Amino acid sequence: MGRTPNVDDELMHARLAEVFRANGYAGASLSDLSRATGLQRASLYHRFPDGKPAMAAAVLTSMESHFGEIFELLASEPDTAEGVAEMARRMALVYRDGRMACVLDTMTLIGAPPEIRAHAARLARAWLQAMAGAAVRAGAAEQDAERRARAALVRIEGALVVARVLDDPSVFEQVLGELPDLLAR
Amino acid sequence: MGRTPNVDDELMHARLAEVFRANGYAGASLSDLSRATGLQRASLYHRFPDGKPAMAAAVLTSMESHFGEIFELLASEPDTAEGVAEMARRMALVYRDGRMACVLDTMTLIGAPPEIRAHAARLARAWLQAMAGAAVRAGAAEQDAERRARAALVRIEGALVVARVLDDPSVFEQVLGELPDLLAR
DNA sequence: GTCTATATTTGGATAGAC
DNA sequence: GTCTATCCAAATATAGAC
What residues does the Transcriptional regulator LmrA/YxaF-like C-terminal domain cover (chains A, B) (predicted)? Predict the structure, then answer.
């Protein structure tokens, strides 16, 4: 039985996440992670005896939990279009209005440990399932709902890439605005 | 006046590109690049005295030239929908049917030199311009054409990310199929 | 639990023989 | 033009004091 995650852990994971998301798994050095958290490298190893892979895993687990809350919100909102709009608002925060990359993108390049990539794949599938569920509640047939959910994820991830490349976050905000129509129409 | 690029150069750039695209800029080590090209690290430095940044720049220049040919094709095809379909077929080759990442994504993370990121941004803008031009020739108003081109790039980049994360290249093929409708309708 | 100090390996880069 | 050998810096990881 591990100990209960506390506020400090969450803050730490958020700071680690920033580094992994911006630099990718391979690009995130222990020095970067040390600087971002304010802890010396040895202290990071005290908290994560298995080193960088364990830090990346903690980031994904934390992300998974944060996203899980958003998916629950989406599932419990009776007005599906409003639920999707709320998800979009939460995603705007997560991705800092398009200025911060997604772990699914930057932590899945060659160089990341296979367990990390598998973890990211699980997160992506949970996200697809949550969005497809919303589409079904909005009246879509199962297959169509899955199609729409996939389209939504494609646009979100693509918008984050394009926003970064062009240094123009508006691309992302544009896509967020399309989500209610795409998923709940 | 530099020397004329020959077949060997193109092959070498293609092999370097594979490493940068799969691993990202930071994740592509000289050892990786050496293995991929069959040249020792010192030999790579003979060809690229400015080291890894120069190799990445060569990859982008090579990519730019390859894409430029595709854009010319797109611009010269009288049947715009057919031109877009041909672009899609070329992109399927470039991205190995969704199994290989895009430089615009993986070479623009924090850790890549600013010149590399600027180079990637130029390539992205040229691509957008080429697609918007096609949309205009298909009858779209200028603003709408730009919107459609941006949507196309978002979907292509997003599909590559999602295909990688889910290990399901079909996501990319699906998006390629949508392009003629999106751009030339 | 955090630190300084250090070990070890890898990565980027150069020198010089062939 | 490519190689082996080497250098130096950076990255991961550990030891042990406090």
Answer: 96-175
Give the residue from A123, A129, A166 with the most B CB atoms within 10 Å of its CB, the best one to mutate.
Answer: A166
Find where tokens 């400090």 sit.
A8
Residue at token pair 């919100």:
A73
Task: Report yes or no: A26 and B28 within 8 Å, Cβ to Cβ.
Answer: no
A94–B contact, CB cutoff 8 A: no
Residue carrying the six token digits 């070498």: B12
A41 touches strand D (CB under 7 A): yes
pLDDT tens digits for range A8-62: 889 999 999 999 999 999 999 999 999 999 999 999 999 999 999 999 999 999 9
Inter-residue contact A68 to A57 (CB < 8 Å): no
Please state, as a whole number, how many other Cβ atoms lie within 10 Å of the Cβ of residue B45.
16
Report the distance separating Cα B91 and Cα B155, nearest Å.
Answer: 13
**DSSP letter assigned to residue A98:** G
Nearest-CA distance B167 → chain A (Å): 8
Name all domains of chain A by residue range, CATH numbers in brackets: 7-183 (1.10.357.10)
Query: Which chain C positions have some atom within 7 A of a protein CB?
Result: 1-5, 10-16
Q: Write down the pLDDT at residue A8.
A: 86
